[in-house]
Amino acid sequence: xxxxxxxxxxxxxxxxxxxxxxxxxxxxxxxxxxxxxxxxxxxxxxxxxxxxxxxxxxxxxxxxxxxxxxxxxxxxxxxxxxxxxxxxxxxxxxxxxxxxxxxxxxxxxxxxxxxxxxxxxxxxxxxxxxxxxxxxxxxxxxxxxxxxxxxxxxxxxxxxxxxxxxxxxxxxxxxxxxxxxxxxxxxxxxxxxxxxxxxxxxxxxxxxxxxxxxxxxxxxxxxxxxxxxxxxxxxxxxxxxxxxxxxxxxxxxxxxxxxxxxxxxxxxxxxxxxxxxxxxxxxxxxxxxxxxxxxxxxxxxxxxxxxxxxxxxxxxxxxxxxxxxxxxxxxxxxxxxxxxxxxxxxxxx
Length: 349
What we know:
This protein has ten helices and 16 strands. By secondary structure, it is α/β, with parallel strands linked by helices. The longest helix is centred in the middle third of the chain and has 18 residues. It is globular and about 70 Å long.
């Protein structure tokens, strides 16, 4: 069966059409399970059976609260999990190669060159005592044989590409000498340095003011069109995904609650968690922002304890629409429309 997909048209705009069933996804995540083990020996299941695809030129938005498994997913894709984490089951196929089974030498050639990861906090991701130009140059030197002059020239070109004002000054600066927005642009310059096919961006605007957030999102749009990039954009804020992500994957407790075309999911969320999450976000009403004294709805209860593996739906204890069945077993993903799936007993399962 064909499904809806958005791709760059010849004029650079995004169009929607049918994806031929023969087109192989760039990235295929299959039944991914990841656990963490505490110093006391307690095991938490952070990702539980996660599966999704990303096609060439496509942007996938990954949405969820803190603790939903978003950052674990980002590092698991490139086998960068901390020592106390382990992939228990699953596959991560990139251009047909299972990265979870690949030799370390092969994986090192892919990291940075074919897949790039942008970490959440730029002030922590950048080395404080190394000049910015040298840090970008290190990424280039790891994958390309360039002279010192060529490294400098390409570094300045990359900084200009990500809209850094005065690239030479930025290159010669230390991270603390530039703004948070410029630091984030530096991370993006590192990410695109070797022409990757896929960029995974983990909360890339979380520490930025609203104006700079929009500038960074516009930069992602520009780079995606120019280089036909695939993106996985991870965030807790659904407003950042509208107009940028083609599809949306909503995580809760390490599981996929809902998945589908972004516009459809945001306009008509079907899972009780997705609806509750969207309702708890500030929005504009008739072009006027809610008054400060207006209280936003909250999701009652707490995120699930991942050390306790309940039999039922992980959202059950917080769900206003829960049924008796919800506490007994985990619902399977059900199709509610073309390309739109929901893991909720309201739709079967």
